[in-house]
Design brief:
The complex is a heterodimer of chains A (211) and B (209). Chain A is of the alpha+beta class and 211 residues long. Chain A is built from seven helices and five strands, in the order ααααβαββαββα. Chain A is elongated, with a radius of gyration of 21 Å. Chain B is an alpha/beta fold. Chain B has two domains: 125 residues, Response regulator (Rossmann fold), CATH 3.40.50; 72 residues, Winged helix-like DNA-binding domain superfamily/Winged helix DNA-binding domain (Arc Repressor Mutant, subunit A), CATH 1.10.10.10. In chain B, 50% of the residues lie in helices and 14% in strands. In chain B, helix 5 links the parallel strand 5 and strand 6. The relative contact order of chain B is 0.10. The chains are: A alpha+beta (211), B alpha/beta (209). Chains A and B meet through helix 1 and helix 2 of A and helix 1 of B.
Chain lengths: 211, 209
């Protein structure tokens, strides 16, 4: 691949990433904050006409919506680049992410990661791949089990395997996105369905593993 | 208080929490009655045909037919129903597309309740309404420079905030004739600059009392 091609792909990937963040913000916190404004407007009006019962009820609901918005923002921020990644390593960061997303929805979570000798850039990329794969696994109702494993290959690369038994319909766009990320890292990408299980497997060569 | 005619509205938004907030806010106005809710554009069109509301409050980004397409369908199939775009997007391009698709109004989701009520009432009456919060953003030209003078911008903001020409004249210690002459200049510049008639017409209706 020429340098020009690489740069073009890099820019394309960055744009896709910005679009993804914009969509996450738009679909989550932006909507919650807008609803919050409407609710507080209703509460102010209720209090103005001395309807204290309605004022209290609507304010309590608004409070809950404000907390939901804060929770969503926190999830988006920590998904961008978790502070934990470089401090406590990939395993702890992935475990926390999996617990917060799948685990909290009742899925059993299994994480086994050996990132010995994996570069900082590669860790960050692998984390993003895992986050997207988990996102889509739970999007259509939580699976009963999710597993994430990363091991060093005999060829000095890494193999990432993410499995879940969630709903089989996947958004093709997300699958394409994962394949694209793997390709950016000169890796190979496979998706397999086996009974209720969907398994994503990505293998990175040594050059990308050291990034 | 004078008796106000009842206005029936349909809420189309794919976010349940937004429909809930809107429902709670509109409950406080006795002359507005919510006659249905739709989580996507297709359902909005079906419900609009069946219930024939005065106004559809329409989100832009929705699954199964977005708000622009749904607006075009509703305008074609239920001509007595008006559409008020209700969105979190403040980009000028979307405002243009919204108005060109046949919507009569465009407001931001966090707009104050008074503005929302005014928008619903104006749109129900067949008039055009653009969220005042959007008007200053429309005065940036293609080169990124503000196309208005400082004085014109000041007057536009006061008008956007809901002041009449007379109020503005009083506030700025100038004659009403001077205000009107400024408004004519502002409109001429905006019309030349925004390139779509729809936005210019919306602004003219919003600004001239």
């Amino acid at each position: 691949m020429s340098d020009d091609q690489r740069l073009a792909e890099r820019l394309l990937a960055e744009r896709a990433e910005r679009r993804r963040i914009a969509e996450q913000l738009h679909d989550g916190p932006v909507q919650h904050v807008a609803a919050l404004a409407q609710m507080l407007d209703a509460a102010v009006h209720a209090l103005e006409v001395d309807d204290h019962a309605a004022g209290k009820r609507v304010t309590a609901r608004a409070l809950q919506v404000a907390r939901d918005a804060a929770e969503e923002l926190r999830a988006i921020v920590s998904g961008l680049e978790p502070v934990a990644l470089n401090e406590v390593g990939l395993e702890a960061a992935v475990r926390e992410l999996a617990e917060r997303t799948a685990g909290r929805r009742g899925s059993s979570v299994e994480v086994a990661i050996d990132d010995e000798g994996v570069g900082e850039g590669a860790r960050s990329s692998l984390f993003q791949v895992i986050r997207e794969a988990l996102d889509q696994a739970i999007r259509r109702g939580p699976p009963s089990a999710v597993s994430v494993s990363l091991r060093r290959t005999s060829a000095d690369g890494v193999e990432l395997v993410i499995s879940d038994d969630g709903a089989p319909e996947r958004r093709q766009a997300v699958i394409d996105g994962l394949a694209e990320r793997a390709a950016e890292l000169n890796g190979t990408f496979h998706v397999r369905r086996d009974g209720p299980w969907t398994t994503v497997r990505i293998v990175l060569p040594p050059s990308a593993t050291r990034l | 208080m004078p008796e106000t005619a009842e206005i029936t509205v349909l809420i189309a938004d794919d976010h349940e929490v937004v429909r809930e907030g809107l429902r709670l806010a509109l409950l406080r106005s006795s002359h507005i009655r919510v006659v249905g809710e739709a989580p996507d554009g297709e359902t909005a069109v079906t419900l609009a045909e069946r219930r024939r509301p005065d106004v559809v409050i329409m989100d832009l980004r929705m699954p199964q037919m977005d708000g622009i397409e749904a607006t075009e369908e509703i305008v074609a199939r239920v001509p007595d129903t008006r559409v008020l775009v209700f969105t979190a997007y403040s980009e000028r391009a979307l405002l243009q597309r919204g108005l060109e698709s046949g919507a009569h109004g465009y407001v931001l989701k966090e707009t104050p309740h008074e503005t929302l009520l005014k928008a619903i009432e104006k749109v129900a009456g067949g008039e055009t309404f653009v969220d005042p919060a959007l008007i200053p953003s429309l005065t940036t030209g293609k080169d990124g420079q503000d196309i208005l003078t400082q004085r014109e911008r000041e007057i536009l903001q006061l008008l956007a905030d809901g002041m009449s020409n007379a109020d503005v004249a009083q506030r700025l210690f100038i004659s009403q004739e001077t205000v009107k002459s400024h408004v004519r200049h502002i409109l001429a510049k905006l019309e030349a600059e925004t390139r779509t008639q729809a936005v210019a017409i919306a602004l003219r209706e919003a600004m001239i009392d």
